[in-house]
Structures are given as C-alpha cells and as structure tokens.
Design brief:
The chain is an alpha/beta fold and about 1000 residues long. Strands 2-3-4-1-5 form a five-stranded parallel β-sheet, with helices on both faces. A five-stranded parallel β-sheet has the order 9-10-14-8-15, with helices on both faces. α18 runs parallel beside α30, α28 packs parallel to α32 and α31 packs across α34. The longest helix is centred in the N-terminal third of the chain and has 126 residues. The radius of gyration is 58 Å and the shape is elongated. The mean pLDDT is about 80.
C-alpha cells in the first residue's frame, strides 16, 4: 500500500486465504495461468495483486482510455512480453472482462495462453532488438544462439516461463459462455478458480475488523457484526424476490457489504458528532437559563449588602474632599512665594555664570600661550643647556634670554669693572646666568613659577626692557640657541598671562563674592522649598486618601451597577427565553435518547444507502421493517420506527431540494438522501427524467452536462475534476466507458502533496468540490455486477404520490394561477424562514453554551436580544404563512381528484410495456396531453363540475391517444387494465378479487373439490 497508487484495505479470512494460496501455486508453476470466475467485487483482483506481491512478481495491467483500440492493445502486449521475456522478470498480467473493448483482445489472450506469443506482433527490427537483449541471459543459461530465429525462440521460452496470465471474468450473461466456446485455451490452459459468495464467517471477520474502531460496548459490537451479516443475506433474498416479482435484477456483492460497513462508520461518526454538539448546546442553554433564574435572588441580596458600604464610602469621600479643598489655598500661596524666590535666585545664578564665563573667556587667551611655553621648556635638553653654559662670549640673543629669566627670578647681576671706563663698575648678567644653568634646576624652577603673583617691579622691567626690544623675539633668539628660544617663549608667556590675570583678578573677586551671595540665597531657597514640600506631601496624603475613598466608592458603585445589570439581563433571559426552557429540555432529552439509538438507526440507514437504492418503495419498507425487528432481537439500541429522512435528513436541505424540483413524496426524498450520503457516485434509473431535471436545477450554476456519445466528454470530465465543477452524465445505457473506472472507484492518490487521480493516460489534480451524477432513461436496465459495484444505483422512477403532487400543481396553475403562484411564494418564504429560524436558534444556543457567565457578556446579551427579536418576527411570519398555506391547500384540495385519477392512468399505461416493449409513454408526453385536456375541455366556474368535466375529457383523450399506438389485439387488454386499476383505486374491487379473476382457483384437486361456502351455490 505504501508503494501503490491503488492501496487496498484488506482483511484476511480463511475464504480469501484459500484463493490467495491457489493463485500463488498457479504463479509458482512455470507457464501457469489462472481463470478467476466470480461476480465483480468478490475479491478476484485484490487476491491476484496480493499473491503477486507475495511471489515478488510484477503486476501488469492495461489502462483503458476513450481512444484505446487495437494498436494500443498491441503496444501493451509488446510491453508485457518485453518485460517477461526480454527483462526476464516474473510478471503477472491481470486482465478483466470489463477491459475487453474488442473481441480481438480475447483472441490475442488465447494465443498468449497457448504459445506465449501473438503472431506477427513484432516487426523484424523489433525481433532483432529482443534477440540482442536476451543474448547475455542465453549465454548464462548455456544456450547458443546462432541465428535470429534461435534468439527469438529463446525469448519466447522466457516468456512462457516468466509470464503468468490471470483472467478475472464474470459468469453473468452470455458473453462468458460464448468466449469459452470460441477460445478453448481460456479453459484448457488455465487453472479455473471459482469465487463464490462469501461465507458467513468471512462476513463476520470483515465486519469485526472494520467495526473494531467504533466506540461501543463489546456486546453491542458483536450484535452489530451479526446484524451486518444478516442485512447482507436478507438483501440477497430480497434481490431474488425482486427478480421473480418485478423481473428486475439486482446483485449483492462483497463490495456492497464493504460499502455498508464504510458507510456505517462514516455516518455514525458524523451523526454522533452532530447530535453531541446539539446536546451540548441545548444543555448549555438550559444551564445558562437555570443559572439566570438561580442568580436573581442572590444578586438582589448582594445589591442590598453593598448599599451600607457604598454610603460610608461616599461620606468618607466628602470628608476628605473638604480637607483637600481647605488645604489647597495655603499650599498654593507658599508654593507661589517659593516660586518667586526660586526665580530671583535663578536670575542671580545667571549673573554669576555670566561673570564666570567672562573670566574663563579672558583666561582662554593666555592659557594657550602658557601651555605653548611649557611645551617649549619640555623641548630644552640638557645638552642645549650645557652648550649655552659653555659659551665664553654668548650671542646677544642668548644674553637677552638669560637676562630676562634672571629678572623674572629676581636674581641680581654681578658687578665687574667697566673696560671702557676705568674705575667704574658695570652689571654682569652672564655669570649669574652661568651659575643658574649650572645648578641644573632651571627648568623645574620655571615650570613651578608662581604665575599668579609676579612682582609688579619684575613685570615692569620685562615690559620696559624686553618686550619692546626687537631683538627679543623667539624667532630671532632661535637663531642663537634653541634653549634660549624656549626661555624667551616662557618669559613672553608669563608676561602675557600676567597682563590677562591683572584684568581678570577684579572679575574673579567679584565672582567669588557673587558665588557666596548665591550660595546663601540657595540655602534660604532650599529651606523654603523643604517647608513647602512638607505641606505638599501632607496635601498629597490627603489626596491619596481621597482617591482611595473615591475608588472604593466607584468600585462598590460598579459592583452595584453590575448586580443591577445582571439582574436586568437575567430577567430579560427569563422573560425572552424562559418559554423555550420546556421545549429545549424536551429536545435535549430526545437528542440524548437519539444519541443512544444512533447505533441501530444509523446501521439501518447505512444498509438503506448501501443496498436499497435500486429497490422500489414496498421492497425498501419490507427490508427496513425486517432489520428493525432483527435489531430488537439483537438488543441493539434503535428507534421503534425507522425513517431515513429522520435519521439522515436535514429539514432545511430537504426544503431546498423541493424548491429545486425534487418530487415531494418520501420515496424521492429518500432517493436524494441516498445520493447525498453514499460513498460511490450515484447512477439514477430515471425513465421519467425527474432526477435529471432536479440535478440540473440544483447544480445549475456550474453544471456540465455530457453524454458518452460526445466526442470531448473525457476532456470535459478532466476539466471539471480539476476545477471542482459538478458533472451530469445523462442517457447512459447498460455499459459504462472503461475510461471512467478510476473515477468511479475514486482511486485518488497523493502526488507531490496534491490529491490526484489518473483518468485514462492523464494524471490530473482532484478537486474535493467535484460532484458526479449519472442518469439513465432505461426503465429496467440490467447492470452487470462489475458495473453495479462501482456506482450507487438509485431507482428514481416516479411514484404515484409524487406524480399526483406534480399534476395537482399543474392543474391549479392552469385553473387558479393566483393560488399556485401564492403557494410557490409561500414555499420559498417558508424555506427561507425556517432556515433563518434554525440559524437564529443555533446562534442563541451557541452564545448560551459558550464558556463564562452569560450575564457578564454584554455582546452576547445583545446578540441574544437581537436573535430573539428576529426569531419572534420569523415565527409570527411563519404562523401567518402556515395559515395562508392551509387556506390555499383547502382551495387546492378541490382539484385533488383529477390529479389522483390521472396519476393512476399514467401508471396504467406505463405497465403496457410489460405486454409489448415498444409501448413506451414518456411523462412529458403525458403532461402535455394533460394540459391540452385542460385547455380544450369545457370551462365551468364551479370547481366540482369543472373537475368532473376534466376527468371525463382527459380519460377519453388519453384512451384515444393510447389506442392509436396499440395493436388491435391489445386494445381490449388496455381497456381492461385501465378499468381494473381505477376500480382498485376506488375500492370497488379488491386485489384478491382481481387475482381470482385473472388466475382462477389454483391448487385445488379435481378429486377433492372445495366445500361449498353456501347452499345456494350449485
């Protein structure tokens, strides 16, 4: 199953194991072939596939398409022979009689069975290719292939050894016997295995296996298993009775039995889920109503209990509110004073910041110079100082630089004789400079120089003797010595810093004073702010207490309001839906009982769907009565009376069907329930075209109508399957096109994550919305078991009640069109009203059964109120509509007799086909004749007289038109038939009297005559 596109759900029991064993023995025999004889659905193909899998054989089958013919068949045979003879693979060729499109196929099969070849099937080049293909195998086997003929002979020998043909033929009909006579190899070269009816133990084994997954007690499951077996056997007996009484054939196959079990599993699961959901909703709705009723007194007591606390909370709120109102002005006044002080202090701080910014701006000019000087000092190296120190007669620039440094350090010059003026002494600045340089601490002294407190006389000398001197610039002194350059930069920087510091000093003093005043003001401000904060905190405490009281009051008020709201909602629920309580309780109890009875009811309904579609009403009723009786004996839970529409029908859906043209009798409704619930596609026996018309109306939007005679019906079918369009295949005969077999069997598989189906030689995507209907106009078709097991046969022949209802509608529409139009409108309106009513009730129950307290769900209450208003309005409209419909039906009832009599006449002429097959009368012709009778007959304003006129006129008109189509010998018989049918319907004679008249006294011996029931009888 994991590897196959046609998975099989198999149950092995002794009957099947025996057949599988026989097939395995045949396959194990070289050149062994099998002829499996049995009706369709008996397990022939499944056993063959499983046996081939056990033997590890390759299974070869042909796929029939619309254009499949002799050439395609020959290609498939070549593929078979190439696999078996060329590749040397053990191969099983499975062939069924439903695949015989041409009788030449059977002739080729006959040759394959006899000689393992078909004459002249391979061309010369193909034979040469096959010969080369088998040479390695021949060499391994020790065979010498000298000529092409030897190679082909070896190929045929391998075909005989590896090819095994399994034929699955049905014994029903004349074709099987004819083929056996024409092609003796089907018997002489095959091992015949008859697949008879499944024994009782097989039926029990299959039912036990498949019903094991259903939730039920072991005792009930055992009873259901036995019931399935009994239903299968009873339908087989019923089919025999149908053949003897009505000359209609119906085949009961193992496939029908499997369909019964699968339908039961599916329908029981769906119905249980649906009924369980309804029970939950009704119980939930009743629980919500009970909670609402029980909550009324409780909520009233809760509301009274909340009142004292609510009053106290309001009083506390008023007290704290007064305290807060008294405290607020005092706090606001102090906050205003503190705010003014804060603004004044902020202005003072701004002024201080302004002075500070000016000082920093002035210092910003000197600081870079000072930093540059200090960096210049860092560039002076010891070698540079030693070089300057060692100069005997230093340059002018060096002397100026050192003199300026000595002045800055307040080092006095030495005195030495003046060489130009003897007797006088002059200042010698170089020797102190040499000593200063020799001390080794010059740079450190300069870096730590107190630039903030340079003596005025020192800075005066610098500004007088050095700064204005054109020779005292860093650039000129750099020419003499780099060390002197750094010292010059330092002196210039000190002079610049001192100049700026003298300007900044008063500002710094003012800044210091302002900062002191600001600090004092800030202290006062903080004290005031602290005092204000204490008052604010006190006010906040009062406000918090006020808020807590207000919140408590609001919370208690909200609880009181919620109680009041719940009380009102509960009263609304009780007043609005209280009247539904008794009905819902009754419905819930009925559903609970129905849930228990589903086990038996759905079993009977499943048997109805799987088996009884092809039967007429009386046979269906007999079968269901018998099954209900058997369920009672087996103690399976079920309802006392069975109705398919009660178990599987949906009233809303049924009304939709009636609107779309389905006849209103229970037989037709049951037919559509079978169509909508069957697992197999329906094939409707529809000689009057009722099903065809209904399907066209129901699926009118996207319906595709095809016939087997259409050239492109396969293409239409493929497109409809792919896009999910419904398809109606009409006017089919007793044989279906083999191309549709995968569709009929629903051989759907998953490919690349997509559901697909193979139709002919094409694989197409399968849309779940696809629906398929088939209809035939044959009144009594004979479908072979191979066809019957693939479809659900439904007898859609019109019933007398259905025809009477149609004819009544026609005659009222003709005689009183106002009444018929109003009736049609009421039907549409009633269907819509009941649909809305059901949806409204579902909505109410869904809201009531939802989780949580319904009294706290405002949206849910609104939905309930709205739904209840709609429901009440619809009920009133429906009541008016029902009264109007009753009035119309009373007026229509006056025309019932003509419709009733005409329906009897139609079934009388329909039975003439039993006398002569060519006596066929369509319903359309009959209705046209009926309308002509109304148009041509004498009008009369009185309904009773008008009906009598119609009856006489139509009876004679129909008699005259039918007699025109009859042989002279059958006219009297027709007259008798009409007369007897009318007298039976009018209870003027009984069925016993009529049978006696037709057949006389039966079973009475001439030697022992019957006793006279009365003396006056001679």
């Amino acid at each position: 199953n994991n590897m196959s596109k046609k998975p099989m759900q198999l149950v092995l029991f002794l009957f099947m194991i025996e057949h599988i064993t026989r097939i395995c023995r045949v396959l194990r025999t070289p050149g062994g072939h099998a002829l499996l004889v049995g009706i369709g659905g008996s397990g022939r193909q499944s056993c063959t596939r499983l046996a081939s899998h056990i033997m590890d054989f390759t299974v070869v089958e042909i796929e029939i398409s619309k254009a499949y013919g002799k050439n395609e068949w020959r290609e498939d045979v070549k593929r078979l022979l190439s696999t078996a003879g060329g590749d040397g693979k053990p191969t099983t060729f499975l062939f069924t009689d439903s695949q015989i499109k041409l009788e030449s196929f059977v002739e080729d099969i006959n040759n394959l069975l006899n000689t393992a070849e078909v004459p002249n099937i391979f061309a010369s080049d193909e034979k040469a290719t096959l010969g080369e293909k088998v040479r390695p195998a021949a060499k391994s086997a020790g065979r010498v292939l000298n000529t092409p003929a030897d190679a082909y002979a070896f190929f045929i020998d391998r075909c005989k050894a590896n090819m095994h043909i399994v034929l699955a033929f049905s014994p029903v009909g004349d074709a099987f016997r004819t083929r056996l006579r024409q092609f003796p190899s089907l018997v002489n070269c095959c091992t015949i295995d008859w697949f008879t009816e499944w024994p009782a133990d097989a039926l029990v084994s299959v039912a036990t296996r498949f019903l094991g997954v259903i939730e039920m007690t072991d005792e009930v499951r055992a009873s259901c298993v036995g019931m399935c077996k009994s239903m299968h056997e009873s339908v087989a007996d019923l089919s025999g009775r149908l053949l003897s009484e009505a000359r209609r054939r119906n085949y009961v196959t193992p496939t029908s039995y499997l369909e019964l079990i699968n339908t039961y599993k599916t329908l029981l699961g769906k119905k249980r889920e649906r009924v369980n959901l309804l029970i939950k909703r009704y119980r939930g709705g009743l629980g919500a109503l009970e909670d609402a009723e029980s909550s009324v007194n409780t909520m009233a007591e809760e509301q009274l209990a909340l009142q004292p606390g609510l009053v106290q909370a309001k009083e506390d709120t008023e007290v704290f509110s007064a305290k807060v109102e008294a405290k607020v002005p005092e706090v606001e006044a102090q906050k205003a004073i503190a705010q003014k002080d804060e603004e004044a202090t902020a202005a003072q701080a701004a002024e201080v910041q302004k002075v500070k910014d000016e000082c920093e701006a002035d210092l910003a000019e000197a600081i870079p110079i000072l930093n540059d000087a200090l960096k210049a000092l860092d560039t002076i190296k010891k070698q540079d100082i030693d070089l300057v120190k060692s100069m005997g007669k230093p340059p002018l620039g060096v002397q100026l630089a050192m003199k300026a440094v000595l002045v800055m350090l307040e080092i006095k010059p030495d005195k030495k004789p003046d060489p130009e003026k003897p007797g006088q002494r002059i200042d010698d600045w170089w020797q102190p400079a040499v000593r200063l340089l020799g001390a080794g601490t010059l740079l450190q002294t300069l870096k730590s120089y107190d630039k903030e407190n340079i003596p005025p006389k020192v800075i005066s000398v610098i500004r007088k003797d050095f700064i204005p001197n054109e020779d005292y610039t860093p650039d000129k002194i750099a020419k003499a010595s780099s060390a002197a350059e750094g010292l010059c930069k330092w002196v210039v920087a000190m002079e610049g810093y001192d100049r700026v510091a003298k300007v900044v000093a008063p500002k710094k003093a003012a800044l210091a004073q302002a900062e002191g005043e600001l600090e004092e003001a800030m202290g006062i401000l903080k004290a005031k702010q602290a005092a204000v904060q204490v008052m604010v905190d006190e006010l906040d405490g009062l406000k918090k207490q006020l808020k807590d009281c207000a919140d408590k009051s609001q919370d208690l008020q909200a609880q009181s309001n919620l109680c009041q709201l719940k009380l009102e909602r509960a009263e609304q629920l009780i007043s609005g839906l209280g009247g539904e309580k008794s009905r819902w309780t009754s419905v819930a109890d009925t559903l609970t009982e129905s849930y228990t009875n589903l086990t038996g009811d759905v079993l009977v309904a499943s048997g109805y769907v799987a088996y009884l579609g092809a039967f007429m009403r009386n046979y269906r009723d007999d079968a269901t009565v018998n099954w209900i009786h058997l369920l009672g004996e087996a103690e399976v839970p079920r309802s006392p009376e069975f109705s398919l529409s009660e178990v599987l029908g949906d009233p809303v859906a049924v009304r939709e069907w009636l609107i779309n043209g389905l006849p209103g009798d229970s037989f037709s409704i049951d037919n559509q329930i079978i169509v909508s619930n069957a697992n197999r596609w329906p094939l409707c026996i529809d000689p009057q075209g009722q099903a065809n018309k209904f399907f066209r109306n129901m699926e009118k939007k996207k319906l595709k109508v095809i016939k087997l005679t259409d050239a492109d019906f396969v293409r239409t079918l493929e497109n409809s399957i792919q896009f999910g369009f419904p398809v109606l295949l009409e006017n089919i005969l007793e044989v279906l096109d083999p191309t549709m077999e995968p569709l009929l069997l629903k051989q759907i598989f998953k490919q690349a994550g997509v559901m697909c189906i193979r139709l002919g030689d094409a694989t197409i995507e399968y849309n779940p919305d696809f629906r398929f209907y088939m209809t035939t106009k044959l009144p009594n078709p004979h479908y072979m078991p191979e066809t019957a097991v693939k479809v659900t046969l439904v007898n859609f022949m019109i019933t007398q009640d259905g025809l009477q209802d149609q004819l009544l509608g026609i005659v009222v529409a003709q005689e009183r069109p106002d009444l018929e139009e109003e009736k049609s409108n009421l039907i549409l309106q009633g269907a819509e009203n009941k649909k809305k009513l059901q949806e409204t009730e579902d909505q109410i129950l869904e809201v009531l059964s939802a989780d949580g307290n319904i009294l706290e769900n405002e949206q849910g209450i609104q939905v309930l109120n709205s739904a209840k208003v709609i429901s009440t309005d619809i009920e009133e409209k429906q009541k008016i509509a029902e009264e109007t419909e009753q009035r119309i039906d009373e007026a229509r009832a006056g025309y019932t007799s003509i419709a009733w009599r005409s329906s009897i006449l139609f079934f009388a002429i329909s039975s003439m086909s039993n006398i002569e097959p060519m006596y066929q009368y369509s319903l359309d012709w009959f209705i046209k004749l009926f309308i002509d009778a109304m148009n041509n007959s004498e009008p009369n304003p009185k309904v009773d007289e008008r009906v009598d006129i119609l009856i006489d006129y139509f009876t004679f008109s129909l008699y005259r038109n039918v007699c025109r189509s009859l042989f002279e010998k059958d006219k009297v018989l027709y007259s008798f038939l009409v007369c007897s049918r009318l007298m039976l319907a009018e209870d003027k004679i009984s069925q016993t009297d009529l049978r006696f008249l037709l057949s006389g006294v039966g079973g009475v011996s001439q030697d022992k005559p019957m006793e006279k029931p009365a003396d006056w009888i001679p």
